[in-house]
Amino acid sequence: xxxxxxxxxxxxxxxxxxxxxxxxxxxxxxxxxxxxxxxxxxxxxxxxxxxxxxxxxxxxxxxxxxxxxxxxxxxxxxxxxxxxxxxxxxxxxxxxxxxxxxxxxxxxxxxxxxxxxxxxxxxxxxxxxxxxxxxxxxxxxxxxxxxxxxxxxxxxxxxxxxxxxxxxxxxxxxxxxxxxxxxxxxxxxxxxxxxxxxxxxxxxxxxxxxxxxxxxxxxxxxxxxxxxxxxxxxxxxxxxxxxxxxxxxxxxxxxxxxxxxxxxxxxxxxxxxxxxxxxxxxxxxxxxxxxxxxxxxxxxxxxxxxxxxxxxxxx
Length: 315
Prior knowledge:
Order of helices and strands: EEEHHEHHHHEHHHHHH
InterPro entries: GPCR_Rhodpsn, GPCR_Rhodpsn_7TM, Olfact_rcpt, OR51/52/56-like
CATH class: Mainly Alpha
Number of strands: 5
GO cellular component, one term: plasma membrane
Number of helices: 12
Strand content: under 5%
Protein name: G-protein coupled receptors family 1 profile domain-containing protein
Helix content: over 70%
CATH superfamily: Rhodopsin 7-helix transmembrane proteins
Domain G-protein coupled receptors family 1 profile: 45-296
CATH topology: Rhopdopsin 7-helix transmembrane proteins
CATH architecture: Up-down Bundle
Structural class: mainly alpha
Radius of gyration: 22 Å
Distance between the termini: 64 Å
Shape: globular
Number of domains: 1
Keywords: G-protein coupled receptor, Membrane, Olfaction, Receptor, Sensory transduction, Transducer, Transmembrane, Transmembrane helix
Strand order of the largest sheet: 4-3-5
C-alpha cells in the first residue's frame, strides 16, 4: 500500500499481464502457426550453422566465428521472446513476474544492440576483404575477432543496463496490464505512477547511439564496397562481389526497415491499429533470426559444402 498526496491509496502489483492481441483473438489463432514455424526454422537453421562451423575445421576462420556469434545472439533472442508469446496464444499464460519481465527487457535490448554491432563488424570484414584483399589476412585475424567480441559484449552490456534498472525503480500501482506480447521498456514504464521522462530520454539516446551509429557505419562500409566493386576489371568479379555483399546488405536494410516502420507506427498510432506495432515487435525477434543463417550461411559456398559433408557423415 502507498498513500498519495491527494488522499488516494494505491496497492502495489506483484506481476504483469501481457495483453497479447486480446482484442483480436482471431490474430492469435492465425499467428500461432506461422510464428511457431518461423521459431522452429530460426532455431534449426542457427543450430545447424553453429554445429557445421564447430565441426568443420575448414570453417575455423574469423568470418565464420562472427557468423557463429550472430547465430548465438539470434537463438537467445528467439528463446527470450517467442516461447512466452506462444504460451499466451495456446494456453493464455499472460502473467509474468516482475523479475522475469525486467530480465526479458534487458536481454531484448542488450542482444539486439549486440546483433546490430555484429552486423557492423561483419560489414567491416566484407569491406576489408573487397577493398583491401591483400591486407585481409593481416587485418582480420583471430585476435581481431576476440577484440571485436569483447567490444560487442562490453559496449552493449553496459550501455543497456540502465534501461531495465530505470524501469524497475519506478513505482507500479493499480495498472499491471502491458499492452504488448513482450516486456518492451516504454510499454511497461507507462504503467507506473511516476514520471518516466528519464526512461524515455535514455531509451531514445541509447537507441540512436547504439543502433544509429552501427547503421551509419554499415551503410558507409557498403558504399565503399560498391565503389570498389564498380572499379573491378576482372570478368565476373563484379557479379561475385555483389552476390556476396548484396544479400547481406538487403538483410540489414530489411532489419532497419522493420525498425523504421515500428517507429512510424508509434508516431502515427492514431491512424493505425494498436496491434500493428505489437505484431512488428514480435516479428522483429523471429524473422531476422530465421533469415540470418540462410542469407549469411547457406548462401556461402564453404558452409553449404560443410553441411553436405556432415550430412554424408551422418548417413
